[in-house]
Amino acid sequence: MKLGRINHVGVATPSIDQSIAAYRDLMGATVIGVPFDLPAQGVRVCFVDTPNTQIELIEPLGADSPIVKFLEKNPQGGQHHVCFEVPDIDAARAWFDDKGARILGPTRTGAHGTPIFFLHPKDMGGVLTEIMESPGDEH
Ligand SMILES: CC[C@@H](C(=O)O)C(=O)SCCNC(=O)CCNC(=O)[C@H](O)C(C)(C)COP(=O)(O)OP(=O)(O)OC[C@H]1O[C@@H](n2cnc3c(N)ncnc32)[C@H](O)[C@@H]1OP(=O)(O)O
Ligand SMILES: [Co+2]
C-alpha cells in the first residue's frame, strides 16, 4: 500500500457555526466552505482550507450520529480523526485486513465524493484513522 498525504483533520463540534466563527475570527481562516448535510454519514460538514490540508468540521446529524458518544465525552468538541489519502481504496482495505487492523464498517462514499473507510482507534495508537481514495486518477 502507498500511504499518501493527509487530506484532512476531522474536528467534532457541537456547533459548526461557532466553530466556523472561531476558525475565521481567531485563526484567520479565509477559505471556508458552506456547511452541508451528509445523512448517510450522520454528520453535518464544513471544510476549512489551510495551505497544505483541510480541517473537516463535523456536527452530529441526528441521534444516531457516529460522533454523539464522542461529544458526550468531549462536550466542547475536539480532534476526532485524521484522514490519509491512498491511491487505491480496495488495495488499502486488503492491506489493513491482512494486517489484522479492525476496519469499521463498509467502504462508503465520503464528503469528497471518493470511497473511504475507518480504522479502529485502538489499532492506531488511539487515533481514529480515515482512509480515503485520492481525488483524481492517481492509480
Ligand atoms: C464527513 C464524512 C466523512 C468524511 O468523508 O470525511 C467523515 O469523516 S464521517 C466521521 C464520523 N464517522 C465515524 O467516525 C465513523 C467511524 N466511527 C466509528 O465507527 C465509531 O465512532 C467508533 C470509532 C468505533 C467509536 O465507537 P462509539 O460507539 O462512538 O464509541 P465507544 O465509546 O464505543 O468507543 C470505543 C473506544 O474508542 C474510543 N474512541 C471513540 N472515538 C474515538 C476517536 N474519535 N478518537 C480516539 N478514540 C476514540 C473511545 O474512547 C473508546 O475507548 P475506551 O473508553 O478506552 O473503551
Ligand atoms: Co473525515
Bound molecules: ligand LP2KCY5N, cobalt (II) ion
CATH class: Alpha Beta
CATH structural architecture: Roll
> What share of the residues does DSSP label as strand, in percent?
35-45%
State the major sheet.
8 strands, mixed
Tally of helical runs: 3
Helix content: 10-25%
| Average predicted local confidence, pLDDT | 96
Order of helices and strands: EHEEEHEHEEE
Give me the CATH fold name. 2,3-Dihydroxybiphenyl 1,2-Dioxygenase, domain 1
CATH superfamily: 2,3-Dihydroxybiphenyl 1,2-Dioxygenase, domain 1
Organism: Allosphingosinicella indica
Keywords: Metal-binding
GO biological process, one term: L-methylmalonyl-CoA metabolic process
InterPro entries: Glyas_Bleomycin-R_OHBP_Dase, MeMalonyl-CoA_epimerase, MMCE/EMCE_epimerase, VOC_core
